[in-house]
Amino acid sequence: PGIRRFIWEHALNVNRILHRLKCAGATVTTKKLLLCRPTGEIVGQLCSYEGRQPLPHRVDAIRDWEPPVTLKDVRSFLGLCG
């Protein structure tokens, strides 16, 4: 019980995720695969048990962005926000 059950459940969740990736035809490289981590960066977001959050450096870039003056500036800002 206790921590052993938590580790077993985590291993089952990892197995379930890898199985879904395989069924979807996705591939996973060992350089990008992080197992047994409390958080991970997935598609530009920080994912954890609590949910998803934007990456801090992206939030800082948006917060520190100068107000757009030209149409090109507006397009650049919208590209950054994605």
TrEMBL record:
This is DNA/RNA polymerase.
